[in-house]
Amino acid sequence: MKNAIVVGVVAACLSFVGGIAVADKVHDWHDIDGVHKHVVEAINELDRARAANHYDMQGHGAKAEEHLHAAERELHEAIDTIRAER
Hints:
By secondary structure, the chain is an all-alpha fold.
């Protein structure tokens, strides 16, 4: 069950990032900032879930965390880019 939650969180975050990649030019960086905050919340929630369960779900928890951190970095860079273009 918890593995399904982790997979769901990762899938949601990656779909946000994918949507950003193919979307029209963003006119308001606040939208992406909101997504960035959700990804950071997902990272924190994943950390709590992994600590509470005392196991790594055969490496899937670590991989999910890796992907979430990659999404967080990309979103941060996207926000910086949009701010610089204004």
